[in-house]
Amino acid sequence: MRFIKDLYLSNRFFTLLISSGVLFVVAFFIPILYGFVKAAFAAFMVLTIVDYILLFGQRHGFFARREMAEKLSNGSENEIYIYLENHFPFGANVKIIDEIPHQFQKRDVLFLESLKSGEGKAIRYWLRPVKRGEYEFGAINVFVSTVIGLARRRYHFEQGKTVPVYPSFIQMRKYELMAISNRLPELGIKRIRRIGHSSEFEQIKTYVPGDDTRTINWKATARKGSLMVNNYQDEKSQQVYCIIDKGRVMQMPFEGMSLLDYSINASLVLANSAMIKGDKAGVITFSNKISSILKADKKPVHLQHILELLYNQRTQFKESDYEKLFANIRLNINQRSLLVLFTNFESLAAMRRQLPFLQQLAKHHLVLTVFFENTEMEELLTMRPANTEEVYLKTIAEKFVYDKKLIVKELNQHGIHTLLTPPAKLTVNTLNRYLEFKSRGLI
After folding, report:
1. Does residue 275 contact residue 281 with C-beta atoms inside 8 Å?
2. Element (H or E) spanning 435, and its range?
3. pLDDT tens digits, one per residue of 329-351
4. Is the CB of residue 171 less than 8 Å from the CB of residue 427?
5. Structural domain harbouring 32
6. CATH code at 16?
7. Which alpha helices (H) appear in 301-425, and where do they start and end?
8. What is the mean pLDDT of the chain?
9. Which Pfam families does the protein's record reference (predicted)?
């Protein structure tokens, strides 16, 4: 049955078969052509048999396997490799169909390749998941044909595999590597000069233009014969908490990914950066109740705990309860900390409902409220209205944008720091604000 089940006839076969039928009809009216048509049909059948024998005469004529990372990174391009090996004694044309997880909603992952006898080849492509969770890969289907091309043999390589999709650790590693190589400005991270200094002395170094003249060490200057200054480092072991709102306001998608997943990815990068800076990082998630609290720490193993906690976040996008959030923070966080709240306010009324709780938090902690610009409105804001309906739509869009600016102004008036950012620039802008707070000695 395998020789029948794995046999697929090509379009070329059916084209020649139909052409043969047409020629036989023509030969019925022109008998002199009958012999030629009969010979051509016989040659066609012989070629089909030869093609079949070449394809099925060898049991293991072709091999394929898929290789990928043990876990995929959410919101990032993940590399997938398919390795091909042709064991036939002749060159082969192949069509590869990879059964990727249904979450991608793609049915066109198809590749066409040609391999010589004994040749191996690697196909590389990328997948960008937009939701956390488990993704199930299926088999690799390879359809092999010879140069004759009348038949194809299917190889079905069972490579079913379930792969977890974690918060964007690729993005986290990228920022980490850039920080190590001192290339963060390439990603949009600003170099911020420290204002004043902390009480933690680091070293004495040679004066360079721009250094604070108040830190000149006159004794070291007298010994060296050149200006020397005291260098101070940022205070360490400060607590940084990423507080993620999992309520309905975070369900809105941009470029296929929800605001919740954007916030989770940014929280992972911020927590890792804070730990590199010597600070302690923690995570709190909430919606209608407190979902999880991970106490701030800076041990190397703590980053893995953060990654696992963020991966396992599930929500029904219910109404968020800020009163419970305030009560739990007062109960569990005693030291003054930086609280980075990832949420979204679409109207002044929505913000004012939560303002009393944010004000109470700001009395005891440094609060940074991060919410999002609606980048989907950019087209409405820049268009030239052609009719009454478009005038109405543009007016509504401008009102939404203006309300966001009013929210920022009102929060700032109550001593609450704000960050209004496009979802795509969330990580960069949040890191910049954290570094700004460090440079100003606010934490």
Report:
1. yes
2. helix 426-439
3. 999 999 999 999 999 998 999 99
4. yes
5. 1-166
6. 2.60.40.10
7. 302-311, 322-332, 348-364, 378-382, 388-413
8. 88
9. DUF58
User: Are 112 and 151 part of one and the same domain?
Assistant: yes
Give the residue from 58, 336, 387, 370 showing the smallest Cα distance to 242.
370
- Residue 216: which of 206, 225, 193 has the closest Cα? 206
Q: In which band, very low, low, confident or very high, does the pLDDT at 381 lie, cut at 50, 70 and 90?
A: confident
Non-local CB neighbours of 439 within 8 Å, separated by 6+ positions? 192, 193, 194, 195, 234
Which CA distances in Å does 275 have to 3, 296, 435?
60, 10, 13
Phi-psi region of 91 (alpha: psi -120 to 50; beta: other; left: phi over 0): beta
Q: How far is CA 341 from CA 105, 323, 326, 371, in A?
A: 33, 14, 12, 8
Q: Are 354 and 322 in contact (CB under 8 A)?
A: yes
Structure tokens at 319: 């109404």
Supply the DSSP symbol for 440: T
Same domain flag for 224 and 243: no
β-pairing verdict for 201-206 and 140-145: unpaired
Q: Which two tokens stand for residue 220?
A: 């070291």
Q: What is the pLDDT of residues 92-151, one digit of tens each?
A: 999 999 999 999 988 778 999 999 999 999 999 999 999 999 999 999 999 999 999 999
Question: Does residue 324 share a domain with residue 430?
Answer: yes
**Do 224 and 284 belong together in one domain?**
no
